[in-house]
Write a structure and sequence with these properties.
9 strands, Rossmann fold, single chain, 11 helices, alpha/beta, 283 residues, Helicase, Ruva Protein, domain 3, elongated
Length: 283
């Protein structure tokens, strides 16, 4: 669909796109082709799409995949999708927020993610023992953080968490003018693949939950040494009986120096988290 076609459909639906829901509709077929090429789809694929909108991508996915689970939170758009895609028997359409409840099992997530909840979607959909592959349109700033694992200024919480579960494969810039309304942020299309081998600490839901809390707790202090950051994290979760000396000694016993957080490699963080998890457990 081009801009004129999208505007015509929205007018007929008496629909005004909501900025709060990130309702920006794809009007560039070249971008759609990029998404499909990145996705490398087959009839074996079970795909999750978050924010189906007017169904431009959804229809292409339905033609190429075994099954598509599509989420559309807006009731007007949901009803329009039901009517327009009724010929497909491999579609399961949900009129609900992806963050409510457990997402269906799939092997690929292909979506123009609502920009305001990108981090929450990653946690809900990808941070699990067996995450799906992802082909995602996201804010360029976030994409750069995911791909820039060695740049201090861009090294962040999402850098660590995404790279702990997934391998970033490809990233290209996408013009905001490829959408209507035109978003005010720069966009990137990224491809992520599940890691072939995950750290043992990231193979169970309860330890993953601790890991995500641990990373969220230390990253506000990325300018500090890891011992100081962990001490502040432990205070935030009311584990004040463990002293900084004990933290540093424990790190040393496990061959970790008390360096600044940004000196550590991505693969160090699951082990660091496991060490602190056990320290709390046996304190």
């Amino acid at each position: 669909m081009n801009k004129t076609q999208v505007q015509f459909i929205l007018k007929n639906l008496e629909f005004t796109p909501k900025k709060s829901l990130g309702q920006n509709f794809l009007i560039n077929t070249a971008v759609l082709d990029h998404i499909l090429n990145f996705s490398d789809l087959s009839k074996k694929d079970i795909v999750l799409e978050i924010g189906a909108g007017l169904g431009a991508l959804t229809e292409k996915l339905l033609e190429k995949c075994q099954k598509v689970y599509a989420y559309e939170i807006d009731n007007v758009l949901y009803k329009n999708l039901l009517k327009n895609l009724s010929i497909f028997n491999n579609l399961r359409l949900f009129n609900k927020d992806i963050l409510d409840g457990k997402p269906p099992l799939c092997n690929k997530v292909i979506s123009n993610i609502p920009y305001t909840i990108t981090g929450q979607i990653f946690q809900k959909v990808f941070f699990h023992p067996n995450p799906p592959e992802g082909v995602l349109l996201i804010e360029k700033v976030i994409a750069e953080r995911i791909f820039s694992t060695n740049e201090y200024k861009k090294f962040s919480r999402i850098t660590i968490t995404v790279n702990s579960f997934l391998d970033p494969i490809t990233m290209i810039d996408i013009s905001p003018e490829s959408f209507y309304p035109c978003p005010k942020i720069k966009l990137s299309l990224i491809k992520l693949k599940p890691k072939k081998k995950n750290h043992d600490f990231l193979k169970k839901e309860h330890t993953i939950k601790f890991y995500l809390k641990f990373i969220a707790g230390i990253m506000p202090y990325k300018n500090k040494n890891i011992g100081n950051a962990i001490e502040l994290f432990l205070k935030s979760i009311k584990k004040t009986q463990i002293t900084k000396t004990e933290i540093i000694d424990t790190l040393k016993k496990n061959n970790f120096k008390n360096d600044k957080i940004t000196k550590f490699e991505i693969h160090n963080f699951p082990e660091l988290s496991q060490i602190i998890y056990n320290l709390i457990k046996y304190a």
